[in-house]
């Protein structure tokens, strides 16, 4: 679970709760009108999943301006994670909220280790660039992945991050 609140000058990241669902549905309608936006039942189901972690980004007034979720899959010997969603209020695009949300999800996945996967529309250049900046690489194409629009998606993977060996001068 995302235990600690992450703060920046204007935004903070906190765990999502059921009271946030209505706003998530509102944002889904704004962000994904042509691709079957999630309904409240989908968010309730995701929040109830014991392997899922959902978070929200809030502005200085406490208003939710973004949300994101990740599934922590596999087992202790073979962990992996899958980013399920990231959404940011269009009025707050280019404010760094997507980065904050992604970094929080990756930190949560990093506690268990393993690779992280996601799907992204092939025409979503800003998201693809964000993911690439955080170590994701395109590994496949899913034709007609999004419905009902029929848009294609890239499957992207970030390999497991391992600690780099410390230089000898740090070890002595």
UniProtKB/TrEMBL annotation:
The EC class name is transferase
Keyword line: Acyltransferase, Ribonucleoprotein, Ribosomal protein, Transferase
- Residue intervals of the N-acetyltransferase domain: 11-161
Matching entries from InterPro entries are given as: AcTrfase_RimI/Ard1, Acyl_CoA_acyltransferase, Bact_Acetyltransf, GNAT_dom
Keyword field contains Ribosomal protein: yes
What GO CC annotations are associated with the protein? ribosome
Q: Which SUPFAM superfamilies match?
A: Acyl-CoA N-acyltransferases (Nat)
- Fetch the Pfam families from UniProt: Acetyltransf_1
Supply the PROSITE patterns for this chain: GNAT
Superkingdom per UniProt: Bacteria
Give the signal peptide range.
Answer: none
- PANTHER family attached here? AMINOALKYLPHOSPHONATE N-ACETYLTRANSFERASE-RELATED-RELATED
Protein known as: Ribosomal protein S18-alanine N-acetyltransferase
């Amino acid at each position: 679970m995302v235990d600690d609140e992450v703060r920046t000058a204007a935004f903070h990241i906190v765990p999502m709760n059921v009271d946030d669902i209505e706003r998530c549905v509102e944002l889904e309608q704004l962000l994904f009108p042509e691709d079957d936006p999630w309904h409240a039942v989908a968010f309730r189901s995701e929040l109830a999943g014991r392997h899922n972690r959902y978070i929200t980004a809030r502005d200085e007034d406490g208003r939710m301006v973004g949300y994101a979720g990740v599934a922590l899959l596999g087992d202790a010997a073979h962990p992996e994670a899958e980013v399920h969603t990231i959404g940011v209020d269009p009025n707050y695009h280019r404010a760094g909220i997507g980065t904050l949300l992604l970094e929080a999800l990756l930190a949560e996945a990093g506690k268990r280790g393993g690779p992280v996967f996601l799907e992204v529309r092939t025409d979503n250049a800003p998201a693809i660039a964000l993911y690439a900046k955080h170590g994701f690489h395109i590994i496949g194409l899913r034709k007609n992945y999004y419905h009902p629009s029929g848009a294609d998606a890239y499957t992207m993977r970030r390999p497991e991050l391992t600690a780099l060996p410390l230089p000898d001068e740090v070890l002595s």
